[in-house]
Amino acid sequence: MPERRDLQVILTRTQAQANAAKSAVTSGTSWAAAARRYSTDTVSKADGGVLRGVARGQQDRALDSAAFSARRGVLVGPVKGQFGYYLVRVTAITPARQSTLAEVSSQIRQTLTQTAQQARLTAFASDFQRRWTARTECGPSYLITICANAPRATRTATAGGTVATAPATTTAGN
């Protein structure tokens, strides 16, 4: 499990707006009120500027760098990013940890089961198509490549090797 951080974020379009938001927060305005007033990020704004459980690499590179280099409780910014200027404060840090086998054994079992089921389904479909293509006669207006009476692709020799050419198709009404 990677390190995760809970963040308070305000995203603004301009540096001047970011500085105004920073002044509001440092002068006592709650982060939620400042986020509602200044932030353009609809996701975090709806939750009072809070982003929970952010792992490295999930956000804009500038925000990611600021959030994972900041100490808990310290206001950082404005930081110029791809979408504007960020103010960020880390409110909680969940350290990275290795999951135990007991925690992930059900996920491993489920993944192995799904892989085996997919392999069986693929094998069944291939075998079914192989066995029934020879037994399937299609009407002249409905010929497709898996019909026994469909024209087969031919191979044409070229200087570089052989090339498969598509069979002539029959159209409805012909």
What's the main sheet like? 4 strands, antiparallel
**Multimeric organization:** single chain
Roughly how many Å apart are the termini? 63 Å
In what order do the strands lie side by side in the largest sheet? 2-1-4-3
* CATH class placement of the largest domain: Alpha Beta
Estimated share of beta-strand residues: 15-25%
Can you name the CATH architecture of the largest domain?
A: Roll
Structural class call reads alpha+beta
Count of the separate structural domains: 2
Count of DSSP H/I helices: 5
Are there runs of 5+ residues with pLDDT below 50, and where?
Answer: 170-174
Q: How would you spell out the order of helices and strands? A: EHHHEHEEHEE
Computed CA radius of gyration, to the nearest angstrom = 30 Å
**Global outline:** elongated
* Secondary structure: helix percent: 25-40%
How is the CATH topology of the largest domain named?
Chitinase A, domain 3
Number of β-strand runs: 6
Set out the fold topology.
Elements: E1 4-12, H1 15-26, H2 31-38, H3 42-45, E2 50-55, H4 61-69, E3 75-81, E4 84-94, H5 101-133, E5 154-158, E6 161-165
